[in-house]
UniProtKB/TrEMBL annotation:
Domain annotation Transcription regulator PadR C-terminal: ranges: 90-178
Name of protein: PadR family transcriptional regulator
Domain Transcription regulator PadR N-terminal: 8-78
Organism this protein belongs to: Paenibacillus rigui
PANTHER family in the cross-refs: TRANSCRIPTIONAL REGULATOR YQJI, TRANSCRIPTIONAL REGULATORY PROTEIN
Top-level lineage group: Bacteria
Transmembrane residue ranges: none
Xref: Pfam families: PadR, Vir_act_alpha_C
Amino acid sequence: MNTLSYGLLALLTRGPRSGYELMQHIQPIWQAKHSQIYPLLALMEKRGFVQYVPVAQKDKPDKKVYSLTDEGIAALREWVPEPTGDPVKRDEMLLKVYCIGFIEPAQARQLFEERMRMYQCKIEKYHRMLDDLGSETVQAVEAGRMEHPGFGSYILLKRAIGQAESDLDWCRWVVGLLQLNPTGSVGN
């Protein structure tokens, strides 16, 4: 099983979810597409890690609502304590920044300003998700009760907020640098 498979199992520890709901919930911590999630769910169902119940929908095909099995819980208990590798970073923006000298300063500012808007939207979204966890979760986290169902979600959202805020600050810093020489020449 790959890391995304374990991520899906982890999300199912919070209760049954459809493939679409799993995709929505995993986005803050892992980039995944429908085309990746559904085949993994089918594979995990064959291996006995998940099971599903078909749920009828009006004017749509039945959806499958997945839940975790005892075998899935056992797989998670085996996987979680294993050492992890280095984090994978795949950000197209960083490749563009590497050769930023090949575009006009105004284009570079626009690139960074668009990225700043994206980070601001993410920060707002993560704060809403944090608020949705409720005061009981905050109290449990502040008491160090990691067995609380919302503990992992809370600490991951705090990390995501911190990273987005740090990236936003970096973009602001770069925009400030770009404003020092707004008519700079383009490299080759």
